[in-house]
Amino acid sequence: MDLVVALVLCVSCLLLFSLWNQSNGKGKLPPGPTPLPIIGNILQLSVKDISKSLTNLAKTYGPVFTLYVGMRPTVVLHGYEAVKEALIDHGEAFSGRGYFPLAEKANKGRGIVFSNGQAWKDMRRFSLMTLRNFGMGKRSIEDRVQEEACSLVEEFRKTKGAPCDPTFILGCAPCNVICSIIFQKRFDYTDQELLKFMEMLNDNIRILSSPWIQIYNILPGFFNYFPGGHKKILNNVAFLDNYALKKIKEHQDSLDVNNPRDFIDCFLIQMKQEKYSKYWAIENLITTVNDLFGAGTETTSTTLRYGLLLLMKHPEVTAKVQEEIDNVVGRHRCPSMQDKSNMPYTDATVHEIQRYISLLPTNLPHAAIQDIKFRNYLIPKGTTIITSLTSVLHSDKEFPHPETFDPGHFLDKNGNFKKSDYFMAFSAGKRSCVGEGLARMELFIFLTTILQKFTLKPLIDPKDIDITPVANGFASVPPPFKLRFIPI
């Protein structure tokens, strides 16, 4: 009986603390639905489609509202005006990385994606500079992407027109580009190390997009004691950490400070110059390497995969892209970034794929790094900020019929490519994607090279192709499919 009484008292204290925590300072935060003790607003969210839930809540509470993830207040920004005002107009104030317990447990505040403060600034500045200047040595990044595009089409050619699931091959190509930048090495598509990489990266994006992780984020301390997808992700991260450490040690043994070969060499040289700074350490390099792999492989491969599905669904779009490829590039040379300015329809199609799929519907969480007055609300320092990128990419103010796949959204009346401030596929502001330039290059060159060499033949009638994402939590993941690559 004493144990029961103690448990009841403990639960009662937790409930009272939760209610106090949620009501404390409520006048400062934007309005929102009333949270329940401990679990917050989880019952008002569909864990299978968070983005749709946020859109429904915005209809009631407006473009700026507060949700509770467990006992933590989270400010949600919905629509272009609110997102732009926070990420661009007040970019510095909202430049923190918000609450993401699984990533914090895996990365411990290191690397680029989930770090904060000076560590984040140093890693981001270094990574941007190194990627931008990677014309060092004899080959530019574009050379590497074109080389991988040739390998990509050769792998599809080996299928000899038989039904093929493109997931693995489309993952290998961007992974190899990252490998060549970080390790100065690419892998054959049958290499066991590459196969293991791809398996783990696919696992991680699938688990992160599952309803389980949305639930885990509410009470991570509680769920850490139980099995689940979070354990699988942590095991995968540990394996990737060990692999990166092995490669770093090999680089340390053969380092020539006057002749850096790749990203790791550049970091090791910087470490020697910044030897009194705690941020320039092997642990930070390991996490940064894995951040580049995670952000630079699965996001691009998922976009390519979804792109092929959409192009099969819309053969009239594919035909126009291939006509433009024939007229500008021809059949006998590899497409290059110089061609893009002469291929407005192809450029518009690549943009429309990214807009339509809204790969990261709610972006990665931001955080206020200071108390800030925002639209007459006072948002305290440390508050997590969720920005609905789908609400921007699918805005009917900018894109007529936003739920329809139409490259015309990025073309003017004369057929020229038309830029849009609403195109935030790579986020915006201080925390925009470090690898945006590389990803744009890969998407354009890989897709145009595939369509230059193959006709995409679906196994069913295009009108019956399902393009509904199978997961829409962390990332928008397309349903599995097969197709035939018919050589042209």
What does this 3D model show about the protein?
By secondary structure, this protein is an alpha+beta fold. Helix content is 51%, strand content 9%. It is built from 17 helices and 11 strands. The chain has helices at residues 2-23, 50-61, 80-89, 101-107, 117-132, 141-157, 167-182, 192-208, 211-216, 220-223, 229-254, 263-273, 282-313, 315-328, 344-357, 389-393, 436-453, and strands spanning 64-69, 72-78, 96-97, 366-367, 372-374, 377-379, 384-388, 454-458, 471-472, 476-477, 483-487. It has a 5-stranded mixed sheet. Strands 5-6 form a two-stranded antiparallel ribbon. Strands 8-11 form a two-stranded antiparallel sheet. A hairpin with a 3-residue loop joins strand 9 (471-472) and strand 10. The protein starts with a helix and ends with a strand. Residues 1-25 form the signal peptide. It comes from Echinops telfairi (Lesser hedgehog tenrec). It is found in: Endoplasmic reticulum membrane; Microsome membrane. Keywords: Endoplasmic reticulum, Heme, Iron, Membrane, Metal-binding, Microsome, Monooxygenase, Oxidoreductase, Signal. Its EC number is 1.14.14.1.
